Amino acid sequence: MDIQSFNDIKELLTALKREDRLFYEMFGKRKSLEFKLSYALELVDFDEARIDYLVKKSVLRENGGLLEIDGLFLEFFEQVLEVNEEINLASIDENIKSIQENIVYFLNENSEHRRHAYLREIKRTFRKIGVVTIRSVIDLRRKVDNTFKNEPNFKNKQLKLKHLDEKRVMVKKLSGQALDLINENQPVFFKTSQDEELKRIITELKLQLNECSHNLIEIEKQIIDYLNQIKHQGLFLEKLRKLKYLKDHFTIEAETDIKQHLAKSNSLIFERRLGEPLNLSLDFILNEERAFASIKKVAKNYKSRTHIVPELAETIATDFLENNVEQEVMINLEEVRNHFLATGDNLFNFIANYNFNKDVGFEERVTVYCQLVSIYDQEFMIANEFENFNGVEYAMVYPK
Fold first, then answer.
1. Residue 117, domain CATH
2. pTM for the full predicted model
3. In 3D, which of 49, 62, 59 has the Cα closest to residue 16?
4. CATH of the domain at 48
5. Is residue 107 part of a domain?
6. Which of 210, 206, 136, 216 is nearest to 169 (CA)?
7. How many of the other CB atoms lie within 10 Å of CB of 96?
8. Which end of the chain is more exposed for a tag (fewer CB within 10 A), N or C?
9. Alpha-carbon Rg for the chain in angstroms
């Protein structure tokens, strides 16, 4: 199958918008082992040509009746939505090198127009370094936490934490290189550029890198603490396995001093005392005079107790027993939607003039407008046009 690229950004956005249901489902199930082509066809109204189009454009990949989002688009979605789990340190290093190269180009250039273009690229890359570094630190902290709490394999948990610590060191190193680039490596450039926006970007970047530095110290402490806990748990489990081995082979008493340790332990003191009732047999109660005497003694004690007679409440008035039904007319959003789809009017004007069979104020009508757009957006055509009425700006919405 020939691989084709999109002709322009408009074609790309149109394709993503048209198949938004499919991408929503596939992105939510991106960690699943499989997404069947048959299920994808249901989401595109069984139009196989729409799937083939996305495969040809390298948005989707198909293999043996299974579909997956292409890695490039998947990475884009995860980066924008801030749900990526991979810590990409290469991008920080690449951005630092890009700045160094563009600074050289800037200093060598005589054309003011081209110098401005290089300066704009430098400022953009400085902003990117700050964002990427902060995201890397946040992802690193989350990854450390998830690894310790959710990784079931003991050895893999320890190895993963060590690898994450290596990435922490790399982030710290790259953050230091970025600070060196600002403070020491390019004094000529910063004196020559004299750009106010660049100065603000550099100040903000220093604050971001300083914050990252403090967070990296906390992450280091956390990793050390987790590794110590794992080591402690590992020693405990190792001892427990040895004891179980000795117990299974009936040599635990001969090869250990477990009896002496158990004799010194007073663990039962901390156990809750359990009450065990003593029930007398029926034969003893029926045939023994002592049991009968005890019953009479208990009964005498109960007779001497003061019995409190509860006061009776007054008769409930008949007025309170009458059935008073309070009715309230509720707005049926589905019914309003059906009426709207049968018209050619815009939604806001339709709601403003709709008869709800009760008194509905302007603010409540605006609320109904927002609810309909939120719930039934797939059935409406939301135009890129806006109107203003009574101080409220609203989008023009029409039936599809």
1. 1.20.58
2. 0.49
3. 59
4. 1.10.10
5. yes
6. 216
7. 19
8. N
9. 37
Last residue of one domain, picked from the residues 238, 255, 273 = 238
Contacts 24+ apart (CB under 8 A), 173-176: 174/89, 174/92, 174/93, 174/96, 174/133, 175/92, 175/133, 175/209, 175/212, 175/213, 175/216
From the CB of residue 93, how many other CB atoms can be counted at a distance below 10 Å? 15
**How far is Cα 39 from Cα 400, in angstroms, rounded to an integer?**
25
253's tokens: 């008493």
77 & 94 share domain: no
Q: pLDDT of 233-272, one tens digit each?
A: 777 777 888 888 888 888 888 888 888 877 777 666 556 6
Contact between 174 and 133 (Cβ < 8 Å): yes
Number of folded domains that form the chain: 3
Q: What is the residue range of 196's domain?
A: 89-238
* 202 and 343, same domain (yes or no): no
Query: Is 192 found in the same domain as 110?
Result: yes
The identity of residue 21, as a single letter, is R
* Domain assignment of residue 224, yes or no: yes
The residues with which 63 forms a beta bridge, in sequence order, are 66
Give dist(CA 65, CA 48) in Å, integer: 12
